[in-house]
Design brief:
The complex is a heterodimer of chains A (about 525) and B (about 450). Chain A is an alpha+beta fold and about 525 residues long. Chain A folds into two domains: about 200 residues, Metalloenzyme, LuxS/M16 peptidase-like (Cytochrome Bc1 Complex, Chain A, domain 1); about 260 residues, Cytochrome Bc1 Complex, Chain A, domain 1, CATH 3.30.830.10. Chain A contains 18 helices and 13 strands. In chain A, the strands form three sheets. A six-stranded mixed sheet of chain A has the order 10-11-9-12-8-13. In chain A, a hairpin with a 4-residue loop joins β4 and β5. Chain A is globular. Chain A starts with a strand and ends in a 19-residue tail after the last strand. The N terminus of chain A is likely disordered. Chain B has two domains: about 210 residues, Metalloenzyme, LuxS/M16 peptidase-like (Cytochrome Bc1 Complex, Chain A, domain 1); about 180 residues, Cytochrome Bc1 Complex, Chain A, domain 1, CATH 3.30.830.10. Chain B starts with a strand and ends with a strand. Chain B is about 40% helix and about 15% strand. Chain B contains 15 helices and twelve strands. In chain B, the strands form two sheets. Chain B has a seven-stranded mixed sheet with strand order 1-2-3-7-4-6-5, sandwiched between helices. Chain B has a five-stranded mixed sheet with strand order 8-12-9-11-10, sandwiched between helices. The radius of gyration of chain B is 23 Å and the shape is globular. The chains are: A alpha+beta (about 525), B alpha+beta (about 450). At the A-B interface, α3, α5, α6, β11 and α13 of A face α2, β6, α4, α10 and α12 of B.
């Protein structure tokens, strides 16, 4: 049974309005702009941001957005084939990246300003007069099918686990499929689908053009003018369904031949960066599981104390690692989720570490952030966020994200707000938005049925160490963890073969008794 | 000793890249070098930018130094141990110091070196960082239990990419291609050696004594600080670090006499892969061999190359095609890699790669293509140097190879001098089928 958390994204809509009112300069154009002129900088970063993504894939055509947009970044223009563009780009080290997410797609490139004119003339033609050649369509479609059928389920378990969690959280929701689609849906896509998608979505009203660096003063006006030949329309406002909260612990186990178990846990949460409570919850998440930092409490308990794996982290929004370990930008969403990422660990300790993770979440919720870590975490965030905007791409990316969520400068706002937040506010946010009883849990492991039996039976799960001299304090805590009860109902556990994922929409109908 | 190259640096709102791109110096910043009495080298690149400082410690020890049997992966393991703190500043205090600083910090290990970095804001924090980093390099402390727990983390790190067939292919290739040299194993090491790390407490002490010493290390600092202040701090905090005077003798790889082949069967679905390698020269900023082959690899196997365009874009036999020729202190492998769509096309792709190499033996590369490559690599390096951290990372890499921060400019000068005839000559010298190693990987049912 599914609970509804009753959230609708009103705050996001406010953010969008701000986006179009504070930054756009629209001389007879519906295109918004984000400009960051830095006259002396020898580089120029250009971003074409579209407020559409895989959530706009039509039912049965999952993966269309991704395929259509990749046909722009890797399909050439009417004037030049992709091969010819590669030849033009190579001497000037130019590129056109495409990143697609649920509700946002970004084309971007960084170019030396000496080559800006040449670069821009090529990408302008790609966007305004795409090549849409059959041979490129076949190549890219085949790549997507190969990725879904082979690479994702067999060659990258960490990513596979995160994608599984997404499937579980967003059943019957526009977010509920991989950006590349499913094997079945991708096979059904045609070049006409791509052309129609482009016609309908690559339009002025969906577009923000961002330019940063040492570009000439008239350049931005020229770009806006050039792109104003696009249809002026806009994709109808996306109304997302309510997010589905699990009731109890819902588990999907992908079975494959592997020496290591991958774990991802999470549930939707009702706030995004737009919400004032985000900052307090951010402090909590940073303390509990800051991405790839020793600050992370989970990292300390699972890796540093027990040597179980390479790292253990927690997030309050969809997280993609960018340069270094900093968050990548332009993955904005109306709806977000809380998640915990436990990196692969020996199969023998999988049950123990799952117990430990949920127990640590329980302790966080019941006891709050420890006072001695509170001020430290705040200082960390204030200082660490200063490193987020070192490149042109990062500065422009954060500027775009700030507008999306309704801020002039989100990071500046964070550095002003965080020092003023009280520990009571953080603990209240933890209790309000996080829980440990209702979780989606994605597991990739071998002998899935055996794990299911152990989980459902609450079998005690002792841990094995290579270190024969573990500290007494840890061994005492282990005795508690190995008995920590998890209330897992057999009907809430699905096991399925790894290779059966991503064939069709949703969770493979493996050996389950009920749907989620 | 202070060397001042006298190249004026450019003050920009964001950390600048060189405005005059076609100067011979791709690295245009004012670089100063000092050497302490204990042998510690300091490379200082003061810049004016928004308050960021990148503080790197380069230890010239990587998996190349793992010359004893059973010790593969130890350089990487020891990198982890370097985060265990000291009696003065225990691990928890060290972590809290960096946390409060909001520093971007980590370490990484390569074949030839191990690098530790702290990237932070605010020049007022410089002395604290120097003091803390010096303390852990001089006074590192851990007991056997701490080592045993960390050894398990390494096994966990191994598991993080255990599902990656590319890694397994690369491990197999190196194992096959090298007989004697420690490049035979990857930085991660063999699983059996990783699993024996809990028993290596005593060896870890020996490893530190040999390699974690000032005469085997370089401090590199890039960013917003005063050079004199930095040198004063380094003298103050690193002066007591004892040199090791240890001389590593890496085994010499004997010439390969006949072609080697190997196959790895992946236990699951995967795209078929092939790696085709030749023993190449070591890095040099003076001899043309490596530089000429670098350019050949770009001309022949980059995205704009004729073979890539044919196999990936036109015939669509391959998902990916690329060359890999890392700069290393000792001779390493020049590898041509392909991810192939159908298993039955593996022999065809292998043949086409060999044919392409034969072509470069028989015909000089077109001059305009050579100029395109030279242009491409210069623009790429300019882009990568857009931040203090990017600049420090690039410089750290070249410093590890020669200890000379000017190596990067010497290398790019060398690239400028390479002719089509040089490339043809190197193709003849290095591409012989009897000196090749071919490894293939397939798995699962073909769709």
């Amino acid at each position: 049974m599914i609970k509804r958390n009753g959230y609708r994204s009103l705050i996001f809509i406010t953010g969008l309005i701000l986006l179009t009112t504070t930054c756009s300069k629209k001389p007879a154009s519906n295109i918004s702009t984000e400009l960051l002129p830095l006259e002396d900088n020898p580089l120029v970063c250009i971003k074409f941001v579209l407020n559409v993504g895989s959530a706009d894939d039509p039912a049965g055509k999952e993966g269309l957005s991704s395929l259509a947009f990749r046909m722009l970044s890797e399909g050439g223009s009417e004037e030049y084939t992709y091969k010819e563009i590669s030849q033009i780009f190579y001497p000037i080290a130019a590129y056109l990246d495409m990143q697609i997410e649920k509700e946002m797609t970004v084309f971007s490139g960084i170019i030396h300003k000496d080559n800006l004119e040449k670069y821009y003339s090529v990408i302008k033609n790609i966007f305004l007069n795409p090549g849409f050649r059959e041979e490129d369509f076949i190549r890219i479609k085949t790549d997507h099918l190969n990725f879904l059928q082979k690479t994702l389920v067999s060659n990258m378990d960490e990513q596979f686990g995160k994608e599984m969690l997404n499937l579980m959280m967003y059943t019957e929701h526009p977010y509920g499929h991989n950006e590349l689609g499913t094997v079945k849906s991708v096979k059904s896509l045609t070049l006409d689908d791509v052309k129609n998608y482009y016609e309908n979505h690559f339009v002025q009203g969906n577009m923000t053009i961002g330019i940063a660096g040492g570009y000439p003063a008239e350049f931005s006006k020229k770009v806006i003018s050039d792109f104003s030949v696009l249809p002026p329309g806009k994709t109808p406002e996306r109304t997302l369904p309510e997010q589905q909260m699990p009731e109890g612990l819902h588990i999907v186990i992908a079975d494959k031949n592997t020496p290591a178990t991958a774990l991802s846990l999470g549930f939707p949460i009702s706030i995004t960066k737009s919400h004032p409570d985000f900052f307090a919850l951010w402090i909590a998440a940073s303390h509990f599981g800051e991405h790839r930092q020793h600050l992370s409490h989970l990292f300390q308990k699972i890796r540093e104390e027990r040597g179980q794996n390479y790292g253990d982290y927690a997030y309050i929004e969809h997280f993609i690692e960018g340069r270094g370990k900093f968050p990548a930008t332009n993955y904005c969403r109306q709806q977000q989720y809380f998640s915990i990422w436990i990196r692969p660990l020996a199969n023998s300790n999988r049950h123990f570490v799952l117990r430990q993770t949920i127990r640590e979440l329980k302790i966080l919720i019941e006891e709050g952030i420890p006072e001695e870590r509170f001020e430290l975490t705040k200082k960390y965030l204030v200082n660490y966020t200063k490193l987020y905007t070192q490149t042109l791409d990062e500065r422009l990316g954060w500027q775009i994200d700030s507008r999306y969520y309704g801020y002039k400068d989100f990071l500046k706002e964070a550095r002003e707000r965080i020092p003023k937040i009280k520990i009571e506010e953080v603990n209240a946010a933890i209790k309000k938005y996080l829980n440990y009883k209702n979780l989606y849990i994605a597991i990739i492991t071998q002998e899935a049925e055996s794990l299911k039996e152990d989980l459902v039976a609450n079998t005690p799960s002792s841990i094995t160490y290579t270190n024969p001299n573990m500290p007494e304090e840890i061994l005492r805590e282990d005795l508690i963890i190995q008995e920590f009860p998890l209330d897992i109902k057999p009907e809430n556990v699905i096991t399925a073969k790894a290779e059966d994922f991503f064939k069709e929409t949703g969770i493979p109908q493996g050996n389950q008794q009920n749907n989620l | 000793m202070v060397k001042n190259r006298g190249t004026a640096f450019i003050v920009l709102a964001l950390l600048s890249c060189p405005l005059v791109l076609w100067s011979s110096d791709v690295f245009p910043y004012d670089t100063r070098i000092e050497k302490l009495e204990n042998g510690l080298t300091v490379v200082s690149v003061p810049l004016e930018n928004p308050h960021i400082i990148s503080y790197y410690t380069i230890v010239r020890s990587g998996s190349r130094n793992e010359i004893e049997p059973g010790k593969s992966g130890f350089a990487h393991f020891f990198e982890h141990m370097m985060f265990k703190g000291t009696k003065n500043i225990p691990r928890e205090k060290y972590d809290d110091f960096l946390t409060e600083l909001g520093a971007g910090t980590n370490g990484y290990t390569s074949d030839d070196y191990t690098c530790y970095f702290v990237v932070f804001a605010g020049r007022e924090n410089l002395e604290k960082v120097v003091k803390t980093e010096a303390d852990r390099f001089i006074n590192l402390y851990y007991d056997e239990e701490m080592l045993q727990t960390e050894a398990a983390v390494i096994e966990g790190e191994y598991y993080s990419s255990v599902s990656n067939p590319g890694r397994r292919l690369y491990e197999t290739l190196r194992h096959e291609a090298f007989d004697k040299h420690s490049y035979k194993h990857t930085t991660m090491g063999y699983l059996e050696d990783i699993q024996d790390m809990p028993n290596q407490f005593e060896y870890s002490k020996l490893y530190k004594k040999r390699f974690y010493a000032p005469d085997n290390s370089i401090i590199l600092v890039v960013g917003d600080y005063e050079h004199e202040e930095l040198i004063e701090c380094i003298n103050k905090y690193y002066g007591d670090w004892e040199p090791s005077n240890y001389e590593l003798k890496t085994p010499v790889e004997p010439p390969q006499e006949k072609e080697k082949r190997s196959h790895y069967e992946w236990p699951g679905q995967t795209m078929p892969r092939i790696a085709l390698a030749f023993h190449g020269p070591a890095f040099s900023d003076e001899k043309i061999d490596k530089a000429a082959l670098d350019l050949l690899a770009e001309i022949g196997f980059s995205r704009s190359s004729p073979l890539y365009q044919r196999l990936v874009i036109e015939e669509q036999k391959c998902l990916a095609l690329y060359a890999d020729f890392p700069d290393r202190r000792d001779p390493h492998l020049l590898t041509f890699n392909a991810v192939v769509k159908q298993k039955e096309d593996l022999p065809y792709v292998e043949k086409e790669i060999f044919n392409e190499l034969e072509h470069y033996k028989n015909e000089p590369v077109p001059k305009n293509k050579l100029e395109d490559v030279k242009s491409n690599i210069k623009y790429i390096i300019v882009r990568q140097m857009g931040t203090t951290d990017g600049t420090a990372g690039i410089l750290a890499f070249y410093i590890n190879l020669t200890t000379d921060p000017h190596s990067i400019n010497k290398l790019f000068d060398l690239y400028q001098k390479i002719t089509p005839q040089n490339i043809q000559e190197m193709a003849h010298k290095y591409f012989s089928k009897t000196k090749s190693t071919v490894v293939t990987l397939t798995g699962g049912e073909e769709q």
